[in-house]
Amino acid sequence: MKVESLKGKVAVVTGASRGIGRSIALELAKVGATIAVNYKSNEGEAKKTLKYIKELGGIGLIVKADISIYNEAKLLIDTAIEQLGRVDILVNNAGISKVGLFMDMNEEEWNQIIDVNFKGTINCCHSVVKHMVSRKCGCIVNISSMWGNVGASCETVYSASKGAVNLFTRALAKELAPSNIRVNAVAPGVIDTEMNNWLSSEERKALEEEIPMGRFGNGQDVGKTVLFLCGEGAAYTTGQIITVDGGMI
Ligand code: NAP
Fold first, then answer.
1. Which of 100, 90, 96 is closest to 116 using CA atoms?
2. One digit per residue, pLDDT tens: the chain, 249 residues?
3. What are the sequence ranges of the domains in the chain?
4. What highest taxon heads this organism's lineage (predicted)?
5. Is the CB of residue 131 less than 8 Å from the CB of residue 231?
6. Probe ligand 1: pick from 23, 42, 91, 191, max atoms within 8 Å of CB?
7. Which atom of ligand 1 is nearest to the CA of 18?
8. Does domain 10-244 have CATH number 3.90.1150.10?
């Protein structure tokens, strides 16, 4: 299979200081994209992502921004345009989760989840879309979750925030298709990142047994799907939710 090239393209990846976001940034950098590595608080890890990009022969910069705040999301996109010349690809990856019974959650907790996962995605899209429309090209990939497709007990608001991302993806794709901008989502299953660190080894083993492929996914499994969606192979693909879950749902 021909290796995708994104040489000369500029990509913004939110929440790229670790986990899935870092893997996405590295997969895009491997094929020549310049990367704006966004993070919220962990500057050291964001610098590490940039260091790995440089070791691959790539280039980029790190940008601190809390994407749940509209003006910070705007600053992220504006900084990428100013310093890297333009934005061809936006990957809305930053997200948070909280596991527990819905009745034990409080307003602050559900506001936080919705603000980061759903509003953060909207904030970044809104800030980049005018720029992409004026250039008549662009590619947006939103990272949702398999729970956004089917809902999960003890992750109710998280599931809803990701379901909202899925529907936003489908709707925005229709609105932006005439401007030659594609919008898709990747809905990962259980991926081996810090987000799942709370699992005990017994819980982890039990969960692995529920996955037909018998293992957690890794960041590369998601990163390679994002790479496909950003490339020529997906030139006629928009408004789709691609589930990457080892067959779990
Ligand atoms: P993670 O390891 O917890 O990393 C989260 C990343 O998001 C970090 O880089 C963090 O930055 C950043 N972030 C959090 N809040 C932010 C904010 N307000 N503004 C900017 N950046 C922010 O998570 P992950 O497992 O890689 O998950 C990445 C995405 O995949 C999320 O959207 C998640 O919901 C989704 N997902 C994950 C799984 C899974 O099993 N892991 C499954 C399905 C979907 P700092 O380091 O600076 O805090």
1. 96
2. 566 799 999 999 999 999 999 999 999 999 999 999 999 999 999 999 999 999 999 999 999 999 999 999 999 999 999 999 999 999 999 999 999 999 999 999 999 999 999 999 999 999 999 999 999 999 999 999 999 999 999 999 999 999 999 999 999 999 999 999 999 999 999 999 999 999 999 999 999 999 999 999 999 999 999 999 999 999 999 999 999 999 999
3. 10-244
4. Bacteria
5. no
6. 191
7. 9
8. no
Q: Is the pTM of this model over 0.90?
A: yes
Q: Report d(CA 165, CA 159) in Å as an integer.
A: 10
Longest dimension (CA), the chain: 52
Whole-number Å distance, alpha carbon 1 to ligand 1 midpoint, is: 31
Cβ neighbourhood burial of 224 (10 Å; 0-12, 13-18, 19+) = middle
In the reported structure, the alpha carbon of residue 29 is separated from the centroid of ligand 1 by a whole-number distance in angstroms of 19
Place of tokens 């509209």: 70
